[in-house]
Amino acid sequence: FLRLCVLRVCQQSEKHLDKILNVSEFFQRIFTVIHSNDPIARSLALRTLGSMAIIISDRKSVHYSIHNSLDNTQ
């Protein structure tokens, strides 16, 4: 439930995400869920990272992990 709330907040405030002072900390807390065994948690993390694309577009590790996560859903 909490992860869904984080996703909704990120989606509703996309135009304000550039005001986050510590992007690395915020990103790291979401990104660690990508390696979880819970498929629902991973899908919510992917959606959250998608809504954060404005502030994390220059991180190559995100692109690589998203690509791998989408490949592994087959």
UniProtKB/TrEMBL annotation:
One of its GO terms (cellular component) is integrator complex. Transmembrane segments: none annotated. Pfam families: INTS7_N. Residues 1-72 form the Integrator complex subunit 7 N-terminal domain. GO terms for biological process: snRNA processing. InterPro entries: INTS7, INTS7_N. This is Integrator complex subunit 7 N-terminal domain-containing protein. It comes from Daphnia pulex.
